[in-house]
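Quick note —
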Amino acid sequence: MSHNNAFDVAVEAAQPAPAGTAADAASDPYEVFQRIGALTRRLHDALQKLGYDKQIEDSLGALPDARSRLTYIAKLTGEAAEKVLNTVDAAQAQQDALVAQADEVAAQLKKDPVGAVARGDVLHFIEHVKSNAEVTSAQLTDIMMAQDFHDLTGQTVRKVVDIATTLEDSLVKLLLETTPPEQRPKVETGFLNGPVTDAENRTDVVSNQAQVDDLLESLGF
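Predicted structure written out below.
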């Protein structure tokens, strides 16, 4: 479809419904409902004529899935964070106890080295250090395993980003197609180009958020 035809379709969709005055609409809820319904119908028909209805429909249909995916990410990261914090608290308590015992044994050795060894205080402390080290090693493994959510959440985030990108791309294309003639000079020529395969090496296409922002600003949005 040509840009002029696309603009004509958009203008047709934007025409006000043949209803009463704004004051009448404000005082009559049914009138408001009728006008919103008529406007929605014209917008829907315009999207169909422009060929973007299916693309936008697919993106919007994916939004509930995106919400569930974000909830899933929040659940995984929350569980991982709680597990790590609990494990660190337990490990910290064990290390504090070990330090206290070390101070006690050191004091006994200074006071009575022979007696401390004879009573088995030193041997008991060494055994306690070994046992504590094994527990700490297991706790560190638990902390490492708690990070296994990273791959799952990474894949999920990429899927949600794809959904958002597809929807934004559809809306940007629709905006470009329906740019009024008097505003078209404000838009860089490259913005009106079709898809490109080497966007990173081009400066005249919409390929990132900054360019989308510039495009919207140039059109007064």
